[in-house]
Design goal:
InterPro entries: DUF1540
Strand content: 15-25%
Shape: globular
Strand order of the largest sheet: 1-2
Pfam families: DUF1540 (PF07561)
Number of strands: 4
Oligomer: single chain
Structural class: mainly beta
Protein name: DUF1540 domain-containing protein
Order of helices and strands: EEEE
Length: 55
């Protein structure tokens, strides 16, 4: 399995010091478009919000 080299989503529960600690790796999906042509068209489906994020 590939290792996540950098995670810049500070709101994610699995992000610790810009490293991903998701227990079973991550799942990346298209973000709604059927045809993805750049990284902007993708999203991390493993994302879990930190407790208290956004409050």
């Amino acid at each position: 399995m590939s290792r996540v080299m950098k995670c810049m989503c500070e709101e994610c529960y699995y992000n610790k010091n810009h490293e991903c600690y998701a227990p079973e790796g991550i799942e990346v999906r298209s973000s709604g478009d059927n045809k993805v042509e750049s990284s902007a068209g993708t999203c991390c489906h493993t994302f879990r919000p930190r407790q208290g994020a956004g409050s």
